[in-house]
Amino acid sequence: MLMGIQEPKYKAVYNWIVDNINSGELKAGDRLPSENELSARFGLSRQTIRHAIDLLGQQKLVTRVRGSGTYVGGEVRQGRRERYMNIAVISTYVDSYVFPTVLREIESVLSGKGYTTQIAFTGNRVGREQEILSNLIDKDIIDGLIVEPAKSALPNPNLHYYRELMKRQIPVLFFNSNYPELGLPYVAMDDVRVGRKAVEYLVKAGHRRIGGIFKCDDGQGLLRYKGFMQGMQEAGLRAKDRNVVWIDSEDLVDMEYWSDYLFSRIGDCTALVCYNDEVAYVLSGICGRRGIRIPDQLSLVGIDNSELSTLADVQITSLPYPMEELGRKAAENIVKMIENPCFDGNYLFDSDVVERVSVKILGSGS
């Protein structure tokens, strides 16, 4: 290297991989360390790591396999020779108003393609998720896994189980949310866009003092909040921190118990974006018991367009969650990932507001 000319940062990664291939430490078919692992090893950004990997790929020294990793060699690694025609599905809940329809569609599509479906539920608990994943790995009789992550907004202790499945070249597809650290594909509602559209609808109705209730332990809650903030900023509005309330799965069950605190936070709002229809439904009941009239005193927008949105005393404006479509897409994509390891299983669904009567139209000065 010439004096005064600094070698590009990506070359350290590039040279390390090439040297290990030449020395035999990395053999054809071996899986490279993940981008996160290489980033930690070399103290470089993931973008720099990706640039080195891309260059190696152009030279046919490595091959990326979507949902599995990057492997030494210029040929796409073939899937396991033995097929079990069995796909596992892990969901958080069995009795939620959303999941039965999603799971029914997944099972229907997979059955039509000749697969049996093995379904398990975590109750949104990472401990139960660990038990299920450990059992699946021990038995080793699945061709793919469709999974809704447990408490996806929180650090997860089970990531090594997913990495083991990736090492075994078993395709993994998340639905509703994902664990970003893994870089695995997922099928979900476009939660950021949905959060933004909820705010846009309220702003169009004349609301300016808009608050929100979001879940803090699920990735969907964080994304819907992100969209909420985007919508407020695009409308030239400032979201007050006190008007944004964060809840977890347990708080939702006990919402009546801590409702005094809730209303102390949102008391000056004319409208709320609710994490989902369940939050909106429970809140509407509490408002009724407190003598707070919806929508005259407080407007609500939910997300999911579930049956709950029509069961409240005042039917709730909501953005539909694509239950049937999402289930079908998840099943179709996992089969494609099994048949073609390079298939990109990612897909986000858009949604538009279904108007009911829970939002009041205000004057421009409100």
TrEMBL record:
InterPro entries: AraR_ligand_bind_dom, LacI/GalR-like_sensor, Peripla_BP_I, Tscrpt_reg_HTH_GntR, WH-like_DNA-bd_sf, WH_DNA-bd_sf. Keywords: DNA-binding, Transcription, Transcription regulation. CDD domains: PBP1_AraR (cd01541), WHTH_GntR (cd07377). Pfam families: GntR, Peripla_BP_3. It comes from the Bacteria. Residues 7-75 form the HTH gntR-type domain. This is GntR family transcriptional regulator. It comes from Enterocloster hominis. The lineage of its organism: Bacteria, Bacillati, Bacillota, Clostridia, Lachnospirales.
